[in-house]
Design a protein that fits this description.
Elements: H1 2-24, E1 28-31, E2 35-37, E3 41-47, E4 54-57, E5 60-61, E6 65-67, E7 70-76, E8 84-91, E9 97-105, E10 111-114, H2 118-124, H3 131-147, E11 168-171, E12 176-179, E13 182-186, E14 190-193, E15 199-201, E16 206-214, E17 218-224, E18 229-236, E19 238-239, E20 246-247, E21 252-255, E22 266-273, E23 276-278, E24 294-295
Parallel strand pairs: 2-9, 10-12
Antiparallel strand pairs: 1-3, 1-24, 3-7, 4-5, 4-8, 6-7, 8-9, 11-14, 12-13, 14-22, 15-21, 16-17, 16-20, 17-18, 18-22, 19-21, 22-23
Protein name: M23ase beta-sheet core domain-containing protein
Organism: Anoxybacter fermentans
GO molecular function: metalloendopeptidase activity
Protein backbone atom coordinates (compact mmCIF):
# COMPACT_ATOMS: atom_id res chain seq x y z
CA UNK A 1 0.00 0.00 0.00
CA UNK A 2 2.86 2.35 0.94
CA UNK A 3 4.57 1.71 -2.43
CA UNK A 4 1.33 2.47 -4.30
CA UNK A 5 0.93 5.79 -2.44
CA UNK A 6 4.54 6.76 -3.24
CA UNK A 7 3.99 5.91 -6.92
CA UNK A 8 0.81 8.01 -7.00
CA UNK A 9 2.62 10.94 -5.38
CA UNK A 10 5.40 10.71 -7.98
CA UNK A 11 2.84 10.76 -10.80
CA UNK A 12 1.16 13.82 -9.27
CA UNK A 13 4.53 15.62 -8.87
CA UNK A 14 5.50 14.89 -12.46
CA UNK A 15 2.12 16.06 -13.69
CA UNK A 16 2.46 19.32 -11.77
CA UNK A 17 6.07 20.05 -12.70
CA UNK A 18 5.77 19.13 -16.38
CA UNK A 19 3.97 22.28 -17.55
CA UNK A 20 6.25 24.50 -15.42
CA UNK A 21 9.32 23.16 -17.20
CA UNK A 22 7.62 23.80 -20.54
CA UNK A 23 6.91 27.45 -19.66
CA UNK A 24 10.47 28.04 -18.47
CA UNK A 25 11.84 26.53 -21.66
CA UNK A 26 9.45 28.36 -24.00
CA UNK A 27 10.96 30.71 -26.56
CA UNK A 28 9.63 34.22 -27.09
CA UNK A 29 10.72 36.71 -29.75
CA UNK A 30 10.09 40.44 -29.32
CA UNK A 31 10.91 43.60 -31.27
CA UNK A 32 10.61 47.24 -30.24
CA UNK A 33 8.37 48.16 -33.20
CA UNK A 34 7.34 46.76 -36.58
CA UNK A 35 7.06 50.33 -37.87
CA UNK A 36 10.43 52.04 -38.11
CA UNK A 37 11.66 55.35 -39.53
CA UNK A 38 14.92 55.97 -41.38
CA UNK A 39 17.56 56.55 -38.70
CA UNK A 40 15.90 54.43 -36.01
CA UNK A 41 17.17 51.27 -34.32
CA UNK A 42 15.45 47.88 -34.53
CA UNK A 43 15.91 45.89 -31.33
CA UNK A 44 15.25 42.14 -31.27
CA UNK A 45 15.08 40.00 -28.13
CA UNK A 46 14.91 36.20 -28.07
CA UNK A 47 14.09 34.84 -24.59
CA UNK A 48 14.29 31.24 -23.38
CA UNK A 49 16.87 30.23 -26.01
CA UNK A 50 20.12 28.66 -24.81
CA UNK A 51 22.00 28.85 -28.13
CA UNK A 52 22.47 32.06 -30.13
CA UNK A 53 19.83 32.35 -32.86
CA UNK A 54 20.64 33.35 -36.41
CA UNK A 55 18.87 36.15 -38.19
CA UNK A 56 19.01 38.72 -40.97
CA UNK A 57 17.47 42.11 -41.68
CA UNK A 58 18.16 44.54 -44.52
CA UNK A 59 20.59 42.04 -45.99
CA UNK A 60 22.73 42.03 -42.84
CA UNK A 61 23.27 39.35 -40.23
CA UNK A 62 21.92 40.12 -36.76
CA UNK A 63 24.68 40.25 -34.15
CA UNK A 64 23.00 38.49 -31.22
CA UNK A 65 24.59 39.01 -27.79
CA UNK A 66 23.82 37.12 -24.58
CA UNK A 67 21.41 38.94 -22.27
CA UNK A 68 19.58 37.58 -19.18
CA UNK A 69 17.81 34.35 -20.23
CA UNK A 70 18.31 34.85 -23.95
CA UNK A 71 19.78 37.08 -26.64
CA UNK A 72 19.44 40.60 -28.00
CA UNK A 73 20.47 42.23 -31.27
CA UNK A 74 20.47 45.87 -32.35
CA UNK A 75 20.48 46.86 -36.00
CA UNK A 76 20.48 50.40 -37.31
CA UNK A 77 18.28 51.59 -40.15
CA UNK A 78 20.26 54.08 -42.22
CA UNK A 79 18.95 57.34 -43.62
CA UNK A 80 19.95 55.81 -46.98
CA UNK A 81 17.55 52.85 -46.56
CA UNK A 82 14.71 53.13 -49.05
CA UNK A 83 11.24 53.33 -47.46
CA UNK A 84 9.37 50.05 -47.83
CA UNK A 85 8.62 46.69 -46.20
CA UNK A 86 11.53 44.39 -45.33
CA UNK A 87 11.56 40.87 -43.85
CA UNK A 88 13.09 40.20 -40.44
CA UNK A 89 14.13 36.52 -40.51
CA UNK A 90 15.23 34.50 -37.48
CA UNK A 91 16.15 30.82 -37.15
CA UNK A 92 16.09 29.24 -33.69
CA UNK A 93 18.23 26.36 -32.43
CA UNK A 94 15.26 23.97 -32.67
CA UNK A 95 15.09 24.65 -36.41
CA UNK A 96 12.01 26.86 -36.25
CA UNK A 97 12.09 29.82 -38.63
CA UNK A 98 10.34 33.09 -37.84
CA UNK A 99 9.64 35.88 -40.31
CA UNK A 100 8.14 39.28 -39.55
CA UNK A 101 7.60 42.19 -41.92
CA UNK A 102 9.13 45.48 -40.77
CA UNK A 103 7.92 48.69 -42.37
CA UNK A 104 10.51 51.45 -42.86
CA UNK A 105 9.04 54.92 -43.23
CA UNK A 106 10.65 58.02 -44.72
CA UNK A 107 12.32 60.40 -42.27
CA UNK A 108 11.77 64.15 -42.22
CA UNK A 109 15.16 65.38 -43.43
CA UNK A 110 15.83 69.00 -44.34
CA UNK A 111 18.76 70.81 -45.99
CA UNK A 112 21.73 72.47 -44.31
CA UNK A 113 23.90 75.14 -45.98
CA UNK A 114 27.35 76.15 -44.73
CA UNK A 115 29.67 78.88 -46.00
CA UNK A 116 33.27 78.41 -44.91
CA UNK A 117 36.78 79.58 -45.78
CA UNK A 118 38.99 77.74 -48.27
CA UNK A 119 41.28 76.66 -45.42
CA UNK A 120 38.37 75.05 -43.56
CA UNK A 121 37.09 73.47 -46.79
CA UNK A 122 40.43 71.67 -47.21
CA UNK A 123 39.69 69.64 -44.08
CA UNK A 124 36.68 68.06 -45.80
CA UNK A 125 37.85 67.90 -49.43
CA UNK A 126 41.64 68.24 -49.61
CA UNK A 127 43.32 68.36 -53.01
CA UNK A 128 46.05 65.89 -53.96
CA UNK A 129 48.59 68.60 -53.05
CA UNK A 130 47.49 68.64 -49.41
CA UNK A 131 49.47 65.51 -48.50
CA UNK A 132 49.75 66.32 -44.80
CA UNK A 133 45.98 66.66 -44.48
CA UNK A 134 45.35 63.47 -46.46
CA UNK A 135 47.79 61.50 -44.29
CA UNK A 136 46.35 62.91 -41.06
CA UNK A 137 42.79 62.06 -42.11
CA UNK A 138 43.87 58.51 -42.96
CA UNK A 139 45.43 58.12 -39.51
CA UNK A 140 42.32 59.53 -37.85
CA UNK A 141 40.10 57.11 -39.78
CA UNK A 142 42.12 54.19 -38.42
CA UNK A 143 41.81 55.49 -34.85
CA UNK A 144 38.05 55.91 -35.27
CA UNK A 145 37.71 52.46 -36.84
CA UNK A 146 39.65 50.93 -33.95
CA UNK A 147 37.43 52.68 -31.39
CA UNK A 148 34.25 51.44 -33.08
CA UNK A 149 35.49 47.84 -33.06
CA UNK A 150 35.80 47.42 -29.28
CA UNK A 151 32.22 47.03 -28.12
CA UNK A 152 31.50 44.92 -25.05
CA UNK A 153 29.26 41.93 -25.96
CA UNK A 154 26.53 42.95 -23.50
CA UNK A 155 24.60 46.15 -22.72
CA UNK A 156 26.41 48.62 -20.49
CA UNK A 157 23.71 51.29 -20.59
CA UNK A 158 21.38 51.76 -17.66
CA UNK A 159 17.81 52.93 -18.20
CA UNK A 160 16.81 55.92 -20.35
CA UNK A 161 19.41 57.96 -22.24
CA UNK A 162 19.83 61.69 -21.60
CA UNK A 163 20.64 64.71 -23.77
CA UNK A 164 24.40 65.40 -23.65
CA UNK A 165 24.22 69.20 -23.44
CA UNK A 166 21.98 72.20 -22.97
CA UNK A 167 21.56 74.40 -26.01
CA UNK A 168 19.81 75.06 -29.29
CA UNK A 169 19.61 72.42 -32.03
CA UNK A 170 21.10 74.04 -35.12
CA UNK A 171 21.37 71.09 -37.50
CA UNK A 172 19.25 67.97 -37.29
CA UNK A 173 20.08 64.36 -38.05
CA UNK A 174 20.08 63.29 -41.69
CA UNK A 175 20.06 66.80 -43.15
CA UNK A 176 21.43 67.01 -46.68
CA UNK A 177 24.49 69.22 -46.24
CA UNK A 178 25.80 71.73 -48.77
CA UNK A 179 29.19 73.38 -48.21
CA UNK A 180 29.86 76.57 -50.18
CA UNK A 181 26.96 75.68 -52.45
CA UNK A 182 28.19 72.15 -53.23
CA UNK A 183 26.58 68.92 -52.06
CA UNK A 184 28.75 67.49 -49.28
CA UNK A 185 27.00 64.62 -47.45
CA UNK A 186 24.25 63.76 -45.01
CA UNK A 187 24.53 65.08 -41.46
CA UNK A 188 25.42 62.08 -39.31
CA UNK A 189 24.23 63.42 -35.96
CA UNK A 190 22.71 66.30 -34.08
CA UNK A 191 24.32 69.73 -33.56
CA UNK A 192 23.62 71.48 -30.25
CA UNK A 193 24.92 75.07 -30.02
CA UNK A 194 25.83 76.92 -26.84
CA UNK A 195 28.71 78.91 -25.34
CA UNK A 196 32.28 77.63 -25.24
CA UNK A 197 32.77 75.73 -22.00
CA UNK A 198 29.19 74.42 -21.73
CA UNK A 199 29.34 71.03 -19.92
CA UNK A 200 29.04 67.88 -22.03
CA UNK A 201 27.52 64.84 -20.33
CA UNK A 202 27.74 61.10 -21.08
CA UNK A 203 24.34 60.08 -22.44
CA UNK A 204 24.53 56.77 -20.56
CA UNK A 205 26.96 54.38 -18.85
CA UNK A 206 29.83 53.05 -20.93
CA UNK A 207 33.55 52.81 -21.62
CA UNK A 208 35.56 55.57 -23.31
CA UNK A 209 37.10 54.08 -26.46
CA UNK A 210 38.62 57.30 -27.82
CA UNK A 211 39.41 60.71 -26.31
CA UNK A 212 41.75 62.78 -28.47
CA UNK A 213 42.03 65.57 -31.00
CA UNK A 214 41.14 64.63 -34.58
CA UNK A 215 41.62 66.83 -37.62
CA UNK A 216 38.02 67.19 -38.81
CA UNK A 217 36.00 66.61 -35.63
CA UNK A 218 38.45 68.33 -33.27
CA UNK A 219 38.55 67.10 -29.68
CA UNK A 220 36.44 63.96 -29.86
CA UNK A 221 35.14 61.34 -27.41
CA UNK A 222 33.67 57.96 -28.37
CA UNK A 223 31.83 55.93 -25.71
CA UNK A 224 30.96 52.24 -26.02
CA UNK A 225 27.57 51.46 -24.46
CA UNK A 226 27.86 47.73 -25.19
CA UNK A 227 26.07 45.39 -27.63
CA UNK A 228 27.46 47.43 -30.56
CA UNK A 229 25.93 50.78 -29.52
CA UNK A 230 28.16 53.89 -29.38
CA UNK A 231 27.87 57.62 -28.79
CA UNK A 232 30.38 60.27 -29.89
CA UNK A 233 30.93 63.92 -28.99
CA UNK A 234 32.91 66.26 -31.26
CA UNK A 235 34.39 69.79 -31.50
CA UNK A 236 34.99 69.96 -27.73
CA UNK A 237 37.16 72.66 -26.18
CA UNK A 238 38.30 70.31 -23.40
CA UNK A 239 38.49 66.55 -22.87
CA UNK A 240 37.84 65.50 -19.25
CA UNK A 241 38.05 61.70 -19.63
CA UNK A 242 40.65 59.24 -20.89
CA UNK A 243 40.55 56.21 -23.16
CA UNK A 244 39.56 53.07 -21.24
CA UNK A 245 37.76 55.00 -18.49
CA UNK A 246 34.37 53.80 -17.25
CA UNK A 247 31.84 56.64 -17.25
CA UNK A 248 28.39 57.02 -15.74
CA UNK A 249 25.28 58.56 -17.25
CA UNK A 250 25.30 62.29 -16.55
CA UNK A 251 29.04 62.47 -15.85
CA UNK A 252 30.75 65.56 -17.29
CA UNK A 253 33.14 64.24 -19.95
CA UNK A 254 34.14 67.46 -21.70
CA UNK A 255 33.28 71.04 -22.55
CA UNK A 256 31.68 72.48 -25.67
CA UNK A 257 33.90 74.21 -28.21
CA UNK A 258 34.62 74.84 -31.87
CA UNK A 259 37.66 72.69 -32.64
CA UNK A 260 38.19 70.99 -36.00
CA UNK A 261 35.81 71.60 -38.92
CA UNK A 262 33.44 73.97 -37.14
CA UNK A 263 31.89 77.39 -37.74
CA UNK A 264 31.00 78.12 -34.11
CA UNK A 265 30.74 76.68 -30.62
CA UNK A 266 28.59 73.55 -30.68
CA UNK A 267 28.46 69.84 -29.93
CA UNK A 268 28.18 67.34 -32.77
CA UNK A 269 26.47 64.36 -31.12
CA UNK A 270 26.36 60.98 -32.85
CA UNK A 271 24.71 57.65 -31.98
CA UNK A 272 25.91 54.68 -34.00
CA UNK A 273 25.54 50.92 -34.43
CA UNK A 274 28.07 49.23 -36.72
CA UNK A 275 28.51 51.52 -39.71
CA UNK A 276 25.03 53.05 -39.39
CA UNK A 277 24.48 56.54 -37.98
CA UNK A 278 21.25 56.83 -35.99
CA UNK A 279 18.93 59.67 -35.07
CA UNK A 280 20.07 60.67 -31.55
CA UNK A 281 16.67 62.18 -30.68
CA UNK A 282 15.05 58.72 -30.42
CA UNK A 283 17.29 57.81 -27.46
CA UNK A 284 16.51 60.79 -25.22
CA UNK A 285 14.29 59.61 -22.36
CA UNK A 286 14.08 56.12 -23.84
CA UNK A 287 14.82 52.85 -22.07
CA UNK A 288 15.43 50.48 -24.96
CA UNK A 289 14.34 47.40 -23.02
CA UNK A 290 11.02 49.00 -22.06
CA UNK A 291 10.30 49.44 -25.78
CA UNK A 292 10.31 45.67 -26.43
CA UNK A 293 6.55 45.22 -26.43
CA UNK A 294 5.72 43.58 -29.78
CA UNK A 295 5.71 39.78 -29.56
CA UNK A 296 6.26 38.02 -32.88
CA UNK A 297 3.77 35.11 -33.10
Amino acid sequence: MREILISLLMVIVLALTGPVEKVIGSIEVKVNDINQVQGEVLMVQVSGETSPPYGTFLGRELNFQSYQDGWIALIGISYWTEPGTYPLWIKLSNGKEIEQSIRVHKGDFKESHLTISKEKAKLVNPSFKDKAIIERKARDRERIKEAYNQSEPFPLWNGPFIRPAEGRITTGYGYTRYVNGKLSNRHSGLDIANAVGTPIYAVNDGIVRLAEELLVTGNTIIIDHGAGLYSSYSHLSELLVEEGEMVKKGQIIGKMGSTGFSTGSHLHWVMKIGDVYLNPEQFVGTDLFQELDFVIP
